Amino acid sequence: MPRDGGPLPSQQKLQEVTASCKRKSWPTAWARGRAGPAMWLGVLQLLLLLLVDPPTTSTEDPAFPHLGDSSQPPPRACPWRCSCPRADTVDCAGLDLKVFPDNITKAVRHLSLQLTVAPQFLPRSLRVADLAANEVVEVFPLTFAEKPLLRSVYLHNNQLSNTGLPPNTFRGSEAITTLSLSSNQLSRLPPGLPASLEQLHLQDNLISKVPRGALSRQTQLRELYLQHNQLTDSGLDVTTFSKLHSLEYLDLSHNLLATVPAGLPRTLAVLHLGRNCIRQVDAARLRVARGLRYLLLQHNELGASGLPAGALQPLRSLHTLHLYGNRLQRVPPTMPRRLRALIMPHNRVAALGARDLASTRGLVELNLAYNHLASARVHPRAFRRLRTLRSLDLAGNQLSRLPAGLPTSLHELRLQHNHLRALEPEMLAGLDQLRELSLAHNQLRVGDIGPGTWHELQALQVLDLSHNELSFVPPDLPEALEELHLQGNRISHVGSEAFVSTPHLRALFLRTNRLHMTSISAEAFLGLVHLRMVDTADNPEQVLVQLPPTAPLQPRG
User: Fold this and answer.
1) In the chain, what are the domains?
2) Average pLDDT of the residues in 248-256
3) Chain centre distance of CA 244
4) Where are the alpha helices (DSSP H) in 397-535?
Protein backbone atom coordinates (compact mmCIF):
# COMPACT_ATOMS: atom_id res chain seq x y z
CA MET A 1 0.00 0.00 0.00
CA PRO A 2 1.50 3.44 -0.84
CA ARG A 3 2.42 5.42 2.23
CA ASP A 4 0.52 8.53 1.13
CA GLY A 5 -2.70 6.58 0.70
CA GLY A 6 -2.60 7.16 -3.09
CA PRO A 7 -3.78 4.67 -5.70
CA LEU A 8 -2.28 1.23 -6.04
CA PRO A 9 0.38 0.79 -8.79
CA SER A 10 -1.98 -0.97 -11.16
CA GLN A 11 -4.75 1.53 -10.49
CA GLN A 12 -2.35 4.42 -10.98
CA LYS A 13 -1.29 3.15 -14.41
CA LEU A 14 -4.91 2.77 -15.46
CA GLN A 15 -5.63 6.33 -14.38
CA GLU A 16 -2.62 7.64 -16.33
CA VAL A 17 -3.68 5.78 -19.48
CA THR A 18 -7.25 7.00 -19.13
CA ALA A 19 -6.06 10.58 -18.71
CA SER A 20 -3.82 10.23 -21.76
CA CYS A 21 -6.73 8.96 -23.83
CA LYS A 22 -8.81 11.91 -22.69
CA ARG A 23 -6.08 14.34 -23.72
CA LYS A 24 -5.24 12.79 -27.13
CA SER A 25 -8.12 10.82 -28.54
CA TRP A 26 -11.35 12.25 -27.22
CA PRO A 27 -11.01 15.93 -28.31
CA THR A 28 -10.01 14.87 -31.82
CA ALA A 29 -12.88 12.48 -32.05
CA TRP A 30 -15.38 14.99 -30.68
CA ALA A 31 -14.06 17.64 -33.10
CA ARG A 32 -14.64 15.28 -36.01
CA GLY A 33 -18.06 14.34 -34.73
CA ARG A 34 -17.10 10.67 -34.60
CA ALA A 35 -17.00 10.02 -30.85
CA GLY A 36 -19.45 7.36 -29.88
CA PRO A 37 -19.66 3.64 -29.17
CA ALA A 38 -16.56 2.92 -31.24
CA MET A 39 -14.44 5.36 -29.19
CA TRP A 40 -15.69 4.04 -25.87
CA LEU A 41 -15.03 0.54 -27.19
CA GLY A 42 -11.43 1.52 -27.99
CA VAL A 43 -10.86 2.78 -24.44
CA LEU A 44 -12.40 -0.39 -23.03
CA GLN A 45 -10.15 -2.51 -25.22
CA LEU A 46 -7.03 -0.76 -23.93
CA LEU A 47 -8.13 -1.21 -20.34
CA LEU A 48 -8.81 -4.88 -20.92
CA LEU A 49 -5.38 -5.42 -22.46
CA LEU A 50 -3.70 -3.75 -19.50
CA LEU A 51 -5.66 -5.91 -17.09
CA VAL A 52 -4.51 -9.02 -18.92
CA ASP A 53 -0.82 -8.10 -18.66
CA PRO A 54 -0.30 -5.44 -15.89
CA PRO A 55 3.09 -4.36 -14.57
CA THR A 56 4.61 -6.99 -12.31
CA THR A 57 5.23 -6.17 -8.62
CA SER A 58 7.45 -7.83 -6.10
CA THR A 59 4.67 -8.08 -3.53
CA GLU A 60 1.10 -9.22 -3.76
CA ASP A 61 -1.35 -6.47 -4.61
CA PRO A 62 -4.19 -6.68 -2.06
CA ALA A 63 -6.70 -5.29 -4.50
CA PHE A 64 -5.70 -7.72 -7.29
CA PRO A 65 -4.08 -10.71 -5.57
CA HIS A 66 -4.11 -12.92 -8.66
CA LEU A 67 -2.07 -10.29 -10.59
CA GLY A 68 0.57 -9.60 -7.98
CA ASP A 69 1.59 -13.16 -7.18
CA SER A 70 4.77 -13.74 -9.18
CA SER A 71 5.61 -17.01 -7.43
CA GLN A 72 3.03 -18.99 -9.45
CA PRO A 73 2.86 -19.04 -13.27
CA PRO A 74 -0.38 -17.40 -14.47
CA PRO A 75 -2.97 -19.75 -15.95
CA ARG A 76 -3.21 -19.79 -19.73
CA ALA A 77 -5.88 -17.24 -20.68
CA CYS A 78 -8.47 -17.68 -23.40
CA PRO A 79 -11.48 -15.42 -24.07
CA TRP A 80 -14.86 -16.80 -23.13
CA ARG A 81 -16.45 -18.96 -25.88
CA CYS A 82 -13.30 -18.72 -28.03
CA SER A 83 -10.85 -21.56 -28.60
CA CYS A 84 -7.09 -21.42 -28.09
CA PRO A 85 -5.58 -24.58 -29.58
CA ARG A 86 -2.07 -23.22 -29.07
CA ALA A 87 -0.45 -20.67 -26.80
CA ASP A 88 -0.13 -18.18 -29.68
CA THR A 89 -3.55 -18.76 -31.31
CA VAL A 90 -6.97 -17.29 -30.46
CA ASP A 91 -9.96 -18.31 -32.61
CA CYS A 92 -13.21 -16.40 -32.00
CA ALA A 93 -14.67 -16.86 -35.49
CA GLY A 94 -18.33 -17.74 -35.92
CA LEU A 95 -19.44 -16.45 -32.51
CA ASP A 96 -21.29 -13.34 -33.72
CA LEU A 97 -19.37 -11.13 -31.28
CA LYS A 98 -20.50 -7.52 -30.86
CA VAL A 99 -17.52 -6.27 -28.84
CA PHE A 100 -13.81 -6.99 -28.74
CA PRO A 101 -13.16 -10.10 -26.58
CA ASP A 102 -11.22 -9.67 -23.35
CA ASN A 103 -8.51 -11.91 -21.90
CA ILE A 104 -6.44 -12.03 -25.13
CA THR A 105 -2.79 -12.67 -24.39
CA LYS A 106 -0.27 -10.17 -25.73
CA ALA A 107 1.75 -13.10 -27.13
CA VAL A 108 -0.95 -14.01 -29.63
CA ARG A 109 0.29 -14.49 -33.21
CA HIS A 110 -2.83 -15.85 -34.94
CA LEU A 111 -6.12 -14.08 -34.25
CA SER A 112 -9.46 -14.83 -35.92
CA LEU A 113 -12.41 -12.59 -35.03
CA GLN A 114 -15.98 -11.75 -36.08
CA LEU A 115 -16.86 -8.29 -34.98
CA THR A 116 -19.10 -5.42 -36.14
CA VAL A 117 -16.35 -2.89 -35.27
CA ALA A 118 -12.64 -3.41 -35.88
CA PRO A 119 -10.59 -3.53 -32.65
CA GLN A 120 -8.63 -0.35 -32.01
CA PHE A 121 -5.61 -2.09 -30.48
CA LEU A 122 -4.12 -5.50 -31.23
CA PRO A 123 -0.99 -7.12 -29.74
CA ARG A 124 2.33 -6.25 -31.41
CA SER A 125 3.17 -9.97 -31.53
CA LEU A 126 0.36 -10.64 -34.00
CA ARG A 127 1.28 -12.49 -37.22
CA VAL A 128 -2.13 -13.38 -38.72
CA ALA A 129 -5.26 -11.22 -38.32
CA ASP A 130 -8.51 -12.62 -39.72
CA LEU A 131 -11.51 -10.26 -39.55
CA ALA A 132 -13.15 -11.53 -42.74
CA ALA A 133 -16.90 -11.90 -43.32
CA ASN A 134 -18.10 -9.27 -40.85
CA GLU A 135 -19.73 -5.86 -41.05
CA VAL A 136 -16.61 -3.77 -40.46
CA VAL A 137 -16.96 -0.24 -41.84
CA GLU A 138 -13.92 1.37 -40.22
CA VAL A 139 -10.38 0.42 -39.29
CA PHE A 140 -8.62 2.45 -36.58
CA PRO A 141 -5.13 3.91 -37.15
CA LEU A 142 -3.49 1.45 -34.76
CA THR A 143 -5.54 -1.63 -35.57
CA PHE A 144 -2.89 -3.01 -37.95
CA ALA A 145 -0.16 -0.37 -37.67
CA GLU A 146 3.06 -0.87 -35.69
CA LYS A 147 2.88 -4.68 -35.93
CA PRO A 148 6.41 -5.62 -37.04
CA LEU A 149 5.62 -9.37 -37.13
CA LEU A 150 2.26 -9.13 -38.93
CA ARG A 151 2.32 -11.14 -42.18
CA SER A 152 -1.31 -11.79 -43.19
CA VAL A 153 -4.42 -9.58 -42.90
CA TYR A 154 -7.83 -10.84 -44.02
CA LEU A 155 -10.53 -8.17 -44.29
CA HIS A 156 -12.58 -9.52 -47.20
CA ASN A 157 -16.37 -9.63 -47.17
CA ASN A 158 -16.87 -6.52 -45.05
CA GLN A 159 -18.29 -3.05 -45.71
CA LEU A 160 -15.12 -1.02 -45.92
CA SER A 161 -15.03 2.11 -48.06
CA ASN A 162 -12.00 4.32 -48.65
CA THR A 163 -13.00 6.59 -45.78
CA GLY A 164 -12.90 3.60 -43.45
CA LEU A 165 -9.20 2.97 -44.14
CA PRO A 166 -6.89 5.67 -42.67
CA PRO A 167 -3.91 6.66 -44.87
CA ASN A 168 -1.48 5.08 -42.38
CA THR A 169 -3.43 1.90 -41.78
CA PHE A 170 -0.34 -0.29 -42.20
CA ARG A 171 2.40 2.11 -41.08
CA GLY A 172 5.15 0.29 -39.24
CA SER A 173 3.90 -3.12 -40.38
CA GLU A 174 6.35 -3.76 -43.18
CA ALA A 175 6.32 -7.57 -42.99
CA ILE A 176 2.79 -8.04 -44.39
CA THR A 177 2.91 -10.32 -47.44
CA THR A 178 -0.82 -11.16 -47.85
CA LEU A 179 -3.60 -8.57 -47.75
CA SER A 180 -7.20 -9.42 -48.64
CA LEU A 181 -9.62 -6.52 -49.10
CA SER A 182 -11.92 -8.19 -51.61
CA SER A 183 -15.71 -7.90 -51.50
CA ASN A 184 -15.85 -4.47 -49.87
CA GLN A 185 -16.90 -1.03 -51.14
CA LEU A 186 -13.58 0.49 -52.12
CA SER A 187 -13.71 2.95 -55.04
CA ARG A 188 -9.95 3.29 -55.51
CA LEU A 189 -6.77 1.57 -54.47
CA PRO A 190 -5.99 2.34 -50.80
CA PRO A 191 -2.89 4.51 -50.23
CA GLY A 192 0.05 3.51 -48.09
CA LEU A 193 0.00 -0.22 -48.86
CA PRO A 194 2.97 -2.14 -47.39
CA ALA A 195 5.96 -2.44 -49.69
CA SER A 196 6.39 -6.04 -48.52
CA LEU A 197 3.18 -7.28 -50.16
CA GLU A 198 3.33 -10.44 -52.25
CA GLN A 199 -0.43 -11.10 -52.64
CA LEU A 200 -3.04 -8.35 -52.88
CA HIS A 201 -6.74 -9.20 -53.21
CA LEU A 202 -9.01 -6.32 -54.26
CA GLN A 203 -11.59 -8.15 -56.36
CA ASP A 204 -15.32 -7.49 -56.02
CA ASN A 205 -15.10 -3.81 -55.11
CA LEU A 206 -16.10 -0.57 -56.85
CA ILE A 207 -12.62 0.46 -57.96
CA SER A 208 -12.62 2.68 -61.05
CA LYS A 209 -9.15 4.14 -60.72
CA VAL A 210 -5.68 3.19 -59.54
CA PRO A 211 -4.06 6.49 -58.41
CA ARG A 212 -0.68 7.27 -59.90
CA GLY A 213 2.06 5.82 -57.72
CA ALA A 214 -0.32 3.67 -55.67
CA LEU A 215 1.71 0.56 -56.56
CA SER A 216 5.12 2.16 -57.01
CA ARG A 217 6.66 0.59 -53.86
CA GLN A 218 5.27 -2.93 -54.21
CA THR A 219 8.27 -4.39 -56.03
CA GLN A 220 7.79 -7.79 -54.33
CA LEU A 221 4.15 -8.17 -55.37
CA ARG A 222 3.60 -11.48 -57.19
CA GLU A 223 -0.22 -11.73 -57.39
CA LEU A 224 -2.69 -8.89 -57.94
CA TYR A 225 -6.44 -9.51 -58.09
CA LEU A 226 -8.58 -6.65 -59.44
CA GLN A 227 -11.39 -8.57 -61.14
CA HIS A 228 -15.05 -7.60 -60.73
CA ASN A 229 -14.45 -3.86 -60.40
CA GLN A 230 -15.26 -0.82 -62.57
CA LEU A 231 -11.86 -0.14 -64.09
CA THR A 232 -11.75 1.75 -67.39
CA ASP A 233 -8.81 2.66 -69.61
CA SER A 234 -8.67 6.13 -68.04
CA GLY A 235 -8.40 4.57 -64.58
CA LEU A 236 -5.02 3.05 -65.49
CA ASP A 237 -1.90 4.59 -67.01
CA VAL A 238 1.47 3.44 -68.28
CA THR A 239 2.96 3.58 -64.76
CA THR A 240 0.23 1.63 -62.97
CA PHE A 241 1.96 -1.76 -63.22
CA SER A 242 5.41 -0.79 -64.52
CA LYS A 243 7.10 -0.86 -61.09
CA LEU A 244 5.84 -4.33 -60.21
CA HIS A 245 9.06 -6.10 -61.12
CA SER A 246 8.01 -9.39 -59.47
CA LEU A 247 4.41 -9.57 -60.69
CA GLU A 248 3.46 -12.97 -62.13
CA TYR A 249 -0.36 -13.05 -61.92
CA LEU A 250 -2.64 -10.14 -62.86
CA ASP A 251 -6.42 -10.55 -62.96
CA LEU A 252 -8.33 -7.65 -64.55
CA SER A 253 -11.33 -9.66 -65.71
CA HIS A 254 -14.92 -8.42 -65.33
CA ASN A 255 -14.08 -4.74 -65.73
CA LEU A 256 -14.77 -2.08 -68.40
CA LEU A 257 -11.44 -2.05 -70.24
CA ALA A 258 -11.46 -1.36 -73.99
CA THR A 259 -7.76 -2.05 -74.57
CA VAL A 260 -4.95 -4.13 -73.17
CA PRO A 261 -3.31 -2.09 -70.35
CA ALA A 262 0.03 -0.42 -71.05
CA GLY A 263 3.18 -0.84 -68.98
CA LEU A 264 2.81 -4.56 -68.26
CA PRO A 265 5.82 -6.00 -66.38
CA ARG A 266 8.18 -8.41 -68.10
CA THR A 267 7.77 -10.96 -65.30
CA LEU A 268 4.05 -11.48 -65.97
CA ALA A 269 3.09 -15.12 -66.50
CA VAL A 270 -0.73 -14.96 -66.30
CA LEU A 271 -2.84 -12.09 -67.65
CA HIS A 272 -6.61 -12.41 -67.22
CA LEU A 273 -8.59 -9.89 -69.30
CA GLY A 274 -11.80 -11.85 -69.75
CA ARG A 275 -15.23 -10.18 -69.57
CA ASN A 276 -14.13 -6.70 -70.64
CA CYS A 277 -14.93 -4.61 -73.75
CA ILE A 278 -11.69 -5.15 -75.69
CA ARG A 279 -12.16 -4.86 -79.47
CA GLN A 280 -8.56 -5.02 -80.63
CA VAL A 281 -5.30 -6.24 -79.15
CA ASP A 282 -2.43 -3.80 -79.39
CA ALA A 283 0.65 -5.86 -80.21
CA ALA A 284 3.02 -3.23 -78.78
CA ARG A 285 1.44 -3.50 -75.33
CA LEU A 286 1.81 -7.26 -75.23
CA ARG A 287 5.32 -7.29 -76.64
CA VAL A 288 6.76 -6.12 -73.31
CA ALA A 289 5.37 -9.14 -71.44
CA ARG A 290 7.42 -11.66 -73.36
CA GLY A 291 7.35 -14.15 -70.50
CA LEU A 292 3.55 -14.45 -70.63
CA ARG A 293 2.35 -18.06 -70.50
CA TYR A 294 -1.42 -17.72 -70.07
CA LEU A 295 -3.45 -15.04 -71.86
CA LEU A 296 -7.19 -14.99 -71.21
CA LEU A 297 -9.31 -12.80 -73.50
CA GLN A 298 -12.63 -14.62 -73.38
CA HIS A 299 -15.95 -12.76 -73.59
CA ASN A 300 -14.66 -9.55 -75.13
CA GLU A 301 -15.60 -7.89 -78.43
CA LEU A 302 -12.77 -9.14 -80.65
CA GLY A 303 -13.98 -9.16 -84.25
CA ALA A 304 -12.46 -9.90 -87.64
CA SER A 305 -9.57 -7.50 -87.05
CA GLY A 306 -9.38 -7.98 -83.30
CA LEU A 307 -6.15 -9.99 -83.41
CA PRO A 308 -3.92 -8.63 -86.20
CA ALA A 309 -1.46 -11.01 -87.83
CA GLY A 310 1.60 -11.39 -85.65
CA ALA A 311 0.09 -9.61 -82.66
CA LEU A 312 0.82 -12.59 -80.42
CA GLN A 313 3.99 -13.83 -82.09
CA PRO A 314 6.39 -12.03 -79.69
CA LEU A 315 4.92 -14.04 -76.81
CA ARG A 316 7.36 -16.88 -77.35
CA SER A 317 6.53 -18.57 -74.04
CA LEU A 318 2.75 -18.46 -74.48
CA HIS A 319 1.25 -21.80 -73.43
CA THR A 320 -2.53 -21.18 -73.35
CA LEU A 321 -4.70 -18.69 -75.24
CA HIS A 322 -8.37 -18.29 -74.24
CA LEU A 323 -10.60 -16.58 -76.82
CA TYR A 324 -13.94 -18.04 -75.80
CA GLY A 325 -17.05 -16.02 -76.66
CA ASN A 326 -15.76 -13.35 -79.07
CA ARG A 327 -16.62 -12.55 -82.71
CA LEU A 328 -13.58 -14.01 -84.43
CA GLN A 329 -14.19 -15.31 -87.96
CA ARG A 330 -10.98 -17.31 -88.32
CA VAL A 331 -8.19 -18.81 -86.28
CA PRO A 332 -5.70 -16.00 -85.48
CA PRO A 333 -2.79 -16.18 -87.94
CA THR A 334 0.87 -16.41 -87.03
CA MET A 335 0.66 -17.49 -83.41
CA PRO A 336 3.54 -18.43 -81.07
CA ARG A 337 5.08 -21.79 -81.97
CA ARG A 338 5.15 -22.95 -78.36
CA LEU A 339 1.40 -22.55 -77.91
CA ARG A 340 -0.05 -25.71 -76.35
CA ALA A 341 -3.75 -24.85 -75.87
CA LEU A 342 -5.98 -22.77 -78.13
CA ILE A 343 -9.44 -22.34 -76.61
CA MET A 344 -11.88 -20.46 -78.84
CA PRO A 345 -15.41 -21.92 -78.70
CA HIS A 346 -18.45 -19.71 -79.32
CA ASN A 347 -16.93 -17.57 -82.04
CA ARG A 348 -17.82 -17.26 -85.75
CA VAL A 349 -15.13 -19.40 -87.38
CA ALA A 350 -16.66 -20.84 -90.56
CA ALA A 351 -13.63 -22.34 -92.30
CA LEU A 352 -10.30 -24.04 -91.64
CA GLY A 353 -7.70 -23.71 -94.36
CA ALA A 354 -4.76 -25.97 -95.02
CA ARG A 355 -2.32 -23.58 -93.30
CA ASP A 356 -4.50 -21.92 -90.66
CA LEU A 357 -2.93 -24.03 -87.92
CA ALA A 358 0.54 -24.29 -89.49
CA SER A 359 2.21 -22.02 -86.93
CA THR A 360 0.93 -24.02 -83.94
CA ARG A 361 2.42 -27.44 -84.56
CA GLY A 362 2.91 -28.04 -80.86
CA LEU A 363 -0.78 -27.77 -79.92
CA VAL A 364 -1.95 -30.32 -77.36
CA GLU A 365 -5.51 -28.98 -77.01
CA LEU A 366 -7.66 -27.32 -79.69
CA ASN A 367 -11.21 -26.23 -78.89
CA LEU A 368 -13.30 -24.88 -81.78
CA ALA A 369 -16.66 -25.92 -80.39
CA TYR A 370 -19.82 -23.99 -81.23
CA ASN A 371 -18.51 -22.11 -84.24
CA HIS A 372 -19.87 -22.21 -87.82
CA LEU A 373 -17.70 -24.96 -89.29
CA ALA A 374 -19.21 -26.96 -92.15
CA SER A 375 -17.59 -30.09 -93.59
CA ALA A 376 -17.18 -28.52 -97.04
CA ARG A 377 -15.07 -25.71 -95.58
CA VAL A 378 -12.69 -27.81 -93.45
CA HIS A 379 -9.65 -28.56 -95.57
CA PRO A 380 -8.58 -32.25 -95.59
CA ARG A 381 -5.11 -31.15 -94.49
CA ALA A 382 -6.22 -28.66 -91.82
CA PHE A 383 -5.02 -30.88 -88.93
CA ARG A 384 -2.11 -32.55 -90.74
CA ARG A 385 0.66 -30.70 -88.90
CA LEU A 386 -0.78 -31.17 -85.39
CA ARG A 387 1.20 -34.29 -84.54
CA THR A 388 1.08 -33.78 -80.75
CA LEU A 389 -2.63 -32.91 -80.48
CA ARG A 390 -4.42 -34.90 -77.77
CA SER A 391 -7.76 -33.13 -77.37
CA LEU A 392 -9.90 -31.85 -80.27
CA ASP A 393 -13.32 -30.33 -79.61
CA LEU A 394 -15.49 -29.65 -82.67
CA ALA A 395 -18.85 -29.92 -80.92
CA GLY A 396 -21.72 -27.65 -81.85
CA ASN A 397 -20.73 -26.97 -85.45
CA GLN A 398 -22.37 -27.89 -88.77
CA LEU A 399 -20.31 -30.95 -89.70
CA SER A 400 -22.10 -33.59 -91.74
CA ARG A 401 -19.19 -36.05 -91.76
CA LEU A 402 -16.05 -36.73 -89.77
CA PRO A 403 -13.12 -34.44 -90.68
CA ALA A 404 -10.35 -36.02 -92.70
CA GLY A 405 -6.76 -36.25 -91.56
CA LEU A 406 -7.42 -36.37 -87.81
CA PRO A 407 -4.13 -36.51 -85.83
CA THR A 408 -3.26 -40.06 -84.73
CA SER A 409 -2.07 -38.66 -81.39
CA LEU A 410 -5.64 -37.85 -80.27
CA HIS A 411 -6.87 -39.03 -76.86
CA GLU A 412 -10.20 -37.13 -76.87
CA LEU A 413 -12.46 -36.27 -79.81
CA ARG A 414 -15.73 -34.40 -79.29
CA LEU A 415 -18.21 -34.13 -82.16
CA GLN A 416 -21.54 -33.88 -80.35
CA HIS A 417 -24.24 -31.49 -81.56
CA ASN A 418 -23.34 -31.65 -85.26
CA HIS A 419 -25.20 -33.05 -88.29
CA LEU A 420 -23.36 -36.36 -88.66
CA ARG A 421 -25.32 -38.93 -90.65
CA ALA A 422 -22.64 -41.55 -91.30
CA LEU A 423 -19.40 -42.95 -89.87
CA GLU A 424 -16.74 -44.08 -92.32
CA PRO A 425 -13.93 -46.40 -91.11
CA GLU A 426 -11.21 -44.56 -93.01
CA MET A 427 -11.91 -41.33 -91.11
CA LEU A 428 -11.06 -43.04 -87.81
CA ALA A 429 -8.12 -45.01 -89.16
CA GLY A 430 -4.96 -44.80 -87.10
CA LEU A 431 -6.61 -43.40 -83.96
CA ASP A 432 -5.26 -46.21 -81.83
CA GLN A 433 -4.61 -43.85 -78.87
CA LEU A 434 -8.16 -42.44 -78.74
CA ARG A 435 -9.71 -42.94 -75.29
CA GLU A 436 -12.90 -40.83 -75.43
CA LEU A 437 -15.21 -40.26 -78.41
CA SER A 438 -18.41 -38.22 -78.19
CA LEU A 439 -20.88 -38.47 -81.08
CA ALA A 440 -23.98 -37.50 -79.09
CA HIS A 441 -26.80 -35.40 -80.52
CA ASN A 442 -26.27 -36.25 -84.18
CA GLN A 443 -28.40 -38.15 -86.73
CA LEU A 444 -26.64 -41.52 -86.74
CA ARG A 445 -28.39 -44.80 -87.54
CA VAL A 446 -26.87 -48.24 -87.14
CA GLY A 447 -27.04 -48.86 -90.88
CA ASP A 448 -24.95 -45.74 -91.50
CA ILE A 449 -22.07 -46.98 -89.36
CA GLY A 450 -19.75 -48.72 -91.79
CA PRO A 451 -18.33 -52.19 -91.03
CA GLY A 452 -14.99 -51.97 -89.26
CA THR A 453 -15.62 -48.42 -88.02
CA TRP A 454 -14.46 -49.30 -84.51
CA HIS A 455 -11.74 -51.72 -85.55
CA GLU A 456 -8.70 -49.48 -84.98
CA LEU A 457 -9.98 -47.79 -81.81
CA GLN A 458 -8.10 -50.23 -79.62
CA ALA A 459 -7.75 -47.84 -76.64
CA LEU A 460 -11.30 -46.43 -76.64
CA GLN A 461 -12.79 -46.51 -73.12
CA VAL A 462 -15.70 -44.01 -73.33
CA LEU A 463 -18.11 -43.90 -76.30
CA ASP A 464 -21.07 -41.53 -76.31
CA LEU A 465 -23.71 -42.31 -78.95
CA SER A 466 -26.59 -40.82 -77.00
CA HIS A 467 -29.42 -38.88 -78.65
CA ASN A 468 -29.08 -40.31 -82.13
CA GLU A 469 -31.41 -42.54 -84.16
CA LEU A 470 -30.03 -45.98 -83.25
CA SER A 471 -32.56 -48.80 -83.21
CA PHE A 472 -30.24 -51.37 -81.59
CA VAL A 473 -26.78 -51.62 -80.03
CA PRO A 474 -24.13 -51.19 -82.75
CA PRO A 475 -22.13 -54.39 -83.27
CA ASP A 476 -18.37 -54.98 -82.95
CA LEU A 477 -17.77 -52.21 -80.44
CA PRO A 478 -14.15 -51.68 -79.23
CA GLU A 479 -12.88 -54.33 -76.80
CA ALA A 480 -11.40 -51.80 -74.35
CA LEU A 481 -14.73 -50.02 -73.90
CA GLU A 482 -15.70 -49.32 -70.25
CA GLU A 483 -18.48 -46.73 -70.54
CA LEU A 484 -21.18 -46.76 -73.23
CA HIS A 485 -23.84 -44.04 -73.59
CA LEU A 486 -26.89 -45.05 -75.64
CA GLN A 487 -29.58 -42.99 -73.93
CA GLY A 488 -32.07 -41.05 -76.01
CA ASN A 489 -32.16 -43.39 -79.00
CA ARG A 490 -34.81 -45.73 -80.47
CA ILE A 491 -33.53 -49.01 -79.04
CA SER A 492 -36.34 -51.49 -78.39
CA HIS A 493 -34.37 -54.72 -78.09
CA VAL A 494 -31.01 -55.80 -76.64
CA GLY A 495 -29.95 -59.20 -77.93
CA SER A 496 -27.88 -61.87 -76.20
CA GLU A 497 -24.72 -60.99 -78.17
CA ALA A 498 -24.97 -57.21 -77.93
CA PHE A 499 -21.92 -56.88 -75.66
CA VAL A 500 -19.85 -59.89 -76.62
CA SER A 501 -17.09 -57.65 -77.96
CA THR A 502 -16.91 -55.45 -74.80
CA PRO A 503 -15.89 -57.69 -71.86
CA HIS A 504 -14.55 -54.73 -69.83
CA LEU A 505 -17.81 -52.76 -69.80
CA ARG A 506 -18.46 -51.06 -66.44
CA ALA A 507 -21.32 -48.63 -67.07
CA LEU A 508 -24.18 -48.78 -69.60
CA PHE A 509 -26.75 -46.03 -70.20
CA LEU A 510 -30.02 -47.09 -71.88
CA ARG A 511 -32.48 -44.60 -70.43
CA THR A 512 -35.10 -42.87 -72.59
CA ASN A 513 -35.30 -45.53 -75.30
CA ARG A 514 -38.18 -47.84 -76.31
CA LEU A 515 -37.47 -50.72 -73.96
CA HIS A 516 -40.12 -52.93 -72.36
CA MET A 517 -39.99 -55.53 -69.61
CA THR A 518 -38.87 -58.30 -71.98
CA SER A 519 -36.70 -56.20 -74.29
CA ILE A 520 -33.35 -57.22 -72.81
CA SER A 521 -32.18 -60.80 -73.29
CA ALA A 522 -31.35 -62.66 -70.09
CA GLU A 523 -27.96 -63.59 -71.58
CA ALA A 524 -27.05 -60.04 -72.67
CA PHE A 525 -24.78 -59.38 -69.70
CA LEU A 526 -23.17 -62.80 -69.33
CA GLY A 527 -19.42 -62.49 -69.07
CA LEU A 528 -19.48 -58.80 -68.15
CA VAL A 529 -17.83 -59.34 -64.78
CA HIS A 530 -16.85 -55.65 -64.45
CA LEU A 531 -20.35 -54.28 -65.07
CA ARG A 532 -21.48 -52.19 -62.10
CA MET A 533 -24.29 -49.99 -63.43
CA VAL A 534 -27.05 -50.22 -66.04
CA ASP A 535 -29.37 -47.20 -66.37
CA THR A 536 -32.76 -48.09 -67.93
CA ALA A 537 -34.89 -45.29 -66.48
CA ASP A 538 -37.54 -43.37 -68.44
CA ASN A 539 -38.48 -46.17 -70.84
CA PRO A 540 -42.11 -47.08 -71.71
CA GLU A 541 -42.01 -49.83 -69.08
CA GLN A 542 -39.86 -50.52 -66.07
CA VAL A 543 -36.95 -52.70 -67.09
CA LEU A 544 -35.35 -54.91 -64.47
CA VAL A 545 -31.74 -55.84 -65.06
CA GLN A 546 -29.93 -58.72 -63.37
CA LEU A 547 -26.26 -57.78 -63.08
CA PRO A 548 -23.72 -60.61 -63.32
CA PRO A 549 -22.12 -61.79 -60.06
CA THR A 550 -19.25 -59.67 -58.85
CA ALA A 551 -15.87 -61.15 -59.63
CA PRO A 552 -12.43 -60.06 -58.45
CA LEU A 553 -10.87 -57.55 -60.81
CA GLN A 554 -8.22 -59.06 -63.03
CA PRO A 555 -5.24 -57.08 -64.26
CA ARG A 556 -5.44 -56.26 -67.93
CA GLY A 557 -2.46 -57.20 -70.01
Assistant:
1) 9-68 (no CATH), 420-557 (3.80.10.10)
2) 98
3) 23
4) none
